[in-house]
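Form 7-S
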Amino acid sequence: MPVPPHATPLSALDKSPIEDLRVITILMVVLYHVIGLSDSGLRVVAPHPLRALADLLNIFMMPAFALIAGLVYAVRPPTLRGFAPFMARKLQRLAIPGLVASLIFAAIATIMHLRWAVEPASLWRLAVYPYAHFWFLQSLLTIFLLVGFADEVTGQRAALALLAVSLLLANMDIVQSSFFSLRSTIGLLPYFIIGICLRRHARWIEARSGLILAIALACALLWCLVTAIDYARIGRVDQAYRQWWPMIFVVSLFLLLLFRLPHHRRLAPFGPMTFTIYLYHVLGTAGARTLLHKLGVQSLPLHLLAGVAGGVLLPVALHLLASRWPPAAHIILGLRPRGTASRRALIPSNS
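Output:
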């Protein structure tokens, strides 16, 4: 199917640092899990500033990945004839490595009697119900299935209508099922479709980019001001990213980063490794924290630094090792058999 005329790539978008934004967002994920919740990670609670930072990261990071996924999807959406191969590639790229990583994670948690321990009889649930941070892969696969099918039915010309429906469903919060992370899927669906709209309505956005970015900056600053006031009053940050007010902030900040974030060459080598970092970073963050505790180190800055370093370096080492052996690259990293270690990660393209 030919690309609709209104899908002409945005020149500014093509020059934007998508890979840099992907790396920065995965660093947000690592930092979030280092800080943790009241019963995990460093167990930082309000009113500590790190608690507010973690809450802000939680609002932005997964919607940002959904936005990036929509942008990349819109480059080459599936045709009706190619829909089955498209979904097969997504299963190979996301589902298989995700299931392998979740089984490894569950095995370690069970052996060490951690909170994510899983009984052997319940391991099948890892494939169909949300587990730890792997729920995002289930949501992304569902979104690819729903949007890909809708695109074919509508001839790729109903993105705005799909966005309206997804916004309504997300804000009504009527889908409560946890099967294949459906509730989280509905919450992320608007962001994915907004990413598609950015690509497909590129000419309209390019003609008004100055005004759009000015509005985005004003919205982001206003949200930060209101949130700071609320945090001082009630001691917490509203993390309901499916609601319209946090959604305005997320999209506004994403647009500012997408169009104004300078390119950093030093981040480029980490781009192909973001998926591996996503899958295995928790093992590195927990390992670093455990080691420091055994050494009697209680310094919060050292825990933050070591946790982020462990959450990045352990998966990077795994990626470099697994990419040398094609079967491991295929099963663990989700790379194609013909040595595609340089492919983009976490939110793969549709080629």
